[in-house]
Amino acid sequence: MKKIIENGTIVTAADTYKADILIENEQITAIGENLDAPDAERIDAKGCYVFPGGVDPHTHLEMPFGGTVSKDDFETGTIAAAFGGTTTVIDFCLTNKGEPLQNAIDVWHAKSKDKAVIDYSFHLMISELNKEVLDQLPAIMDNEGITSFKVFMAYKNVFQADDETLFRTLKMAKEHGGLVMVHAENGDVIDYLVSEALEKGNTDPIYHALTRPPEVEGEATGRAAQLTGLADSQLYVVHVSCAEAVEKIAEARSKGFNVWGETCPQYLALDQSYLERPNFEGAKYVWSPPLREKWHQEVLWNALKSGQLQTLGSDQCSFDFKGQKDLGKGDFSKIPNGGPMIEDRVSILFSEGVKKGRISLNQFVDIMSTRSAKLFGLYPKKGTIAVGADADVVIFDPNVERTISVGSHHMAVDYNAFEGMKVTGEPVTVLSRGDFVIRDKNFVGETGKGRYLKRARYNQLLAPVDEKLKI
Ligand SMILES: NC(=O)NCCC(=O)O
Ligand SMILES: [Zn+2]
Ligand SMILES: [Zn+2]
């Protein structure tokens, strides 16, 4: 069925203008004034912005972690994402040392197939990079379209990889056109600081933040950036939380290194004092890296504005307060790390960013959608409103005022980290490849309709085309 979205203001990463959009066969087929197609359903977007569906580059749906499994799965997580104006998520596929990579990928396909309501893709975790692993990667890039690889520099004895693995991953990415992602914190130093705190009897949630100071994030970010320069490769630093890390990214970029940075809503709008909330409530705000002193927020906003940071990931990794976060009662190091962010990512960026004059409307679209689509090989199918793009479209009311609350959110968990926060703006209608997923703020999508997306390689879209990979 054809559709025409009319009377709205289209916003892309580059432009803001009034026009109608014609949608046919999953795609945008025309953009212009007073479009007509006699058999089209007409959707009125009067008073609203019409922008590309959000691309969330960082989620952990149904992920085993911290002795439990993150609560939102590919069904509840993608429904919540759609309510929030996101139409594509890229989730992290965990791997186990010694296990064929394809097995791990198959586990992630089994979790997501028949569940996701919007389109999705995977990054792949690299925990070791010997010849055996290296030999598997080109086929995985070709067959699975997985072109980004995540290395953890923290979580000692769990996910943490050593510097040799990081460096070899960077070299591999250079050769094959992949993008390396890092969780940049110095896991060895954190491990020492945590045991020191616990020995002294410091067990409350606030010690999670105090044992992961900004210096350990800045150090690891700088190390990863230097190794990227040495390998002449490309790096994407996930969940940047502090000034120390921003400085290292900016320094590397000023040297011409291909280093990119993502921050998350929690670092822009929450701060370290939340971890001191009584009755163990501080556990709700345990992320790694941790929430920082409030002044870091403005540094992050300025980095988004100036382009030193480019994207916003939700780092969705939700755990119930009761029954999951409380695994860490009496020992902060056992609190599952992560929180529910997938639904509020776009709204927080709009309300705290655009409405408060920190970023422009076009920067907002770039940060929450376009730049991730470009960096991760999905553009221009995803991440923009253009003829030929998938019709992933959000109709967004920029003036409605509302209060975020667990009572009205759609994530599966028993709290919302922004509880009581007033925001301006809300998605009203969301389409995924031309089909309504959210219509007039109601879910009308279909479980399992989301499609797995194979992605292009980094150097097919951004860097000069490598002779070996002519496109
Ligand atoms: N960030 C966090 O605390 N949890 C999710 C896993 C990760 O990204 O490190
Ligand atoms: Zn991480
Ligand atoms: Zn994460």
From TrEMBL:
PTM characteristics: Carbamylation allows a single lysine to coordinate two divalent metal cations.
Needed co-factor(s): Zn(2+)
The organism of origin for this protein: Halobacillus yeomjeoni
Protein EC: 3.5.2.2
EC top class, as a word: hydrolase
Protein name in the entry: Dihydropyrimidinase
Domain annotation Amidohydrolase-related: ranges: 49-437
Lineage of the species this protein comes from: Bacteria, Bacillati, Bacillota, Bacilli, Bacillales
Keywords: Hydrolase, Metal-binding
Superkingdom to which the source organism belongs: Bacteria
